[in-house]
Design a protein that fits this description.
With about 210 residues, this protein is an alpha+beta fold. The protein contains 5 helices and 11 strands, in the order αββαβααββββββββα. The termini are far apart.
């Protein structure tokens, strides 16, 4: 179900409030709840409940959830090494925006982002919104392989690739941060609703933290 037609911190907070209320109201009936920018996918066990019951609960909880204002959320800092040898599209993107690549990096690290959704792959957190001066469309032809840790921009979103995968985002750096580790608790360093800041690191610190190029 959609709570709004566009994303914003306020709508994201409302999605989270609704998800929390439904978890409490349906403790055994839910299979999963998948929050996104302005929507919430509700998966339930049809052997324990039915569509009519779930819909009634959603409507009841929605009235409260839509009154929620944006919360501060937890602030998470993610390290990143920015350099043309770590981001294949950094120079091109900077040239297209008539910026020095160091200026583009500053615009990326100066911004505070909100985790709007996690999807595509485990640990792939969609963060928004990047400064409009460095927003960029997806590549016309996606790469067959993007390395784990790649810091990337697509439209006004930014993200870190949690694992090697195909991808069409613009690569501007590399992070040593593991975005998904099934052996850790929790397995991801961020969750929907968190605030994120990228912290620039030098090459030596990147390798010392376990990064690779």
């Amino acid at each position: 179900m959609y709570l709004d037609s566009a994303s914003s911190p306020r709508v994201s907070a409302q999605v989270q409030a609704l998800a929390q209320a439904l978890r409490a109201a349906l403790p055994t009936e839910l299979v999963d709840l998948i929050p996104s920018y302005a929507s919430l996918l509700v998966l339930f066990d049809p052997f324990q409940t039915d569509h009519f019951h779930v819909r009634r609960l959603v409507r009841e909880q929605l009235a409260t959830a839509t009154r929620v204002e944006a919360s501060e959320g937890r602030l998470v800092e993610l390290p990143a090494y920015y350099h043309p040898d770590a981001g294949e599209d950094l120079l091109r993107l900077a040239n297209e925006r008539q910026l020095e690549w160091e200026e583009l990096v500053s615009l990326h690290t100066d911004q505070e982002y909100r985790v709007y959704a996690i999807g595509f792959a485990p640990g792939f957190a969609y963060l928004g919104d990047v400064d409009p001066r460095i927003a960029a469309p997806r590549l016309a032809t996606p790469r067959q392989r993007v390395p784990r840790g790649a810091v990337a921009i697509a439209d006004r979103q930014t993200a870190i690739y949690p694992a090697p995968s195909p991808g069409g985002w613009n690569l501007i750096g590399r992070s040593p941060q593991r975005m998904f580790d099934p052996d850790s608790d929790p397995p991801m360093p961020v969750q929907v609703g968190d605030r994120v800041r990228f912290v620039a690191m030098d090459r030596d610190s990147f390798f010392a933290a376990g990064g690779s190029l």
